[in-house]
Amino acid sequence: MTLLHFRKNAGGRPAAPEVEAFLDGYSIEVMPRTAEKVEDFRALLPAKTRVYIAHIDGTPIDDMVATAARLKAEGFDVMPHFAARMIRDKAMLADWIARYQGEAGVDQALLLAGGLDAPKGAFADSMQMLDTGLFDRAGFKRLHVAGHPEGNRDIAPDGSDRALLDALRWKQAFRDRSDADMAIVTQFCFEAAPVIAWADRLAAEGIDLPIHIGIAGPAKLQTLIKFSVACGVGASLRVLQKRARDVSKLLLPFTPERVIADLAAHKAANPDFNIERVHFFPLGGITASAAWATENGGDAAKPANQI
């Protein structure tokens, strides 16, 4: 006889099996200044969880590398951001790669343009960084790139997705000619339908890079709306706006049960659906996001060689 294990969530209800499966191997991100407030990440996260380190403009590289080394020592897979528009030139990029490798044992990176309006130096986007060959020569095993289910006005001011699709095709071709495993990690979203439509569009266009869908962890509604407007989250923002009109819910934290449940159900019904992992943006704090993931079935991460 097979005994099924059901994790109970905060409400005392068992975590749905499809949600537990969908959350398996989730990742999360942190900034150096918030990491300083966490005494021991092993008390929050499953062993081997992939932890992205967000590089905000103005954060010294010393702080980034020190945070990476600490997380690596605590037993996590570390993936720092490389924001193209913050990097002055090829020499600086090479130095950062060498420091992450030599001081923290890092062999993974998220490459993105970054939130600056204009580049500080030679790089405007992640493709230009990949084109240097520095990550290949350094032996980075995993390189993630950014995805935008609801568009990106920096890349396509007219709201079209042609430039975004062309960029993903270029990155897929890079994967095919390199040794690196690659995946798309997306901006956070609040509604499943636009995400499913976007993921299906990529598949129809022949883009088969695995998708790690961005999800905002529990946070105050006002906080999420502020970040959503700043980050250009579009269509699914209406979920927050609708909730804001309900005075009885206005002061309660927003949690991602609905979007996770809808995506998990779709994945269970369509096993070939190309969303493979969940990536949490802990906008309401890493403790709250980690606790929510655990209560809803998130468990030990899959080995790093799996997606």
Quick check: average pLDDT?
A: 86
Terminus-to-terminus distance: 32 Å
What CATH calls the topology is: TIM Barrel
Order of helices and strands: HEHEHEHEHHEHEHEHHHEH
Task: Provide a quick synopsis of the model.
Keywords: Oxidoreductase. One of its GO terms (molecular function) is oxidoreductase activity. The protein has 307 residues and is α/β, with parallel strands linked by helices.
How would you sum up this structure, described in words?
- This is Methylenetetrahydrofolate reductase.
- Keywords: Oxidoreductase.
- InterPro entries: FAD-linked_oxidoreductase-like.
- By secondary structure, this protein is α/β, with parallel strands linked by helices.
- It has helices spanning 17-23, 32-35, 61-73, 90-104, 126-131, 134-138, 162-177, 192-204, 221-231, 237-244, 257-269, 286-295; strands at residues 27-30, 50-53, 77-83, 108-112, 142-147, 181-189, 211-216, 275-281.
- The radius of gyration is 19 Å and the shape is globular.
- It has an 8-stranded parallel beta barrel, surrounded by 6 helices.
- It has one domain (17-295): TIM Barrel.
Any key phrases for this structure?
Methylenetetrahydrofolate reductase, 12 helices, 307 residues, TIM Barrel, alpha/beta, oxidoreductase activity, oxidoreductase
Furnish the topology, listing elements before pairings.
Elements: H1 17-23, E1 27-30, H2 32-35, E2 50-53, H3 61-73, E3 77-83, H4 90-104, E4 108-112, H5 126-131, H6 134-138, E5 142-147, H7 162-177, E6 181-189, H8 192-204, E7 211-216, H9 221-231, H10 237-244, H11 257-269, E8 275-281, H12 286-295
Helix pairs in contact: 1-11, 3-4, 9-10
InterPro entries: FAD-linked_oxidoreductase-like
Organism: Maritimibacter fusiformis
Keywords: Oxidoreductase
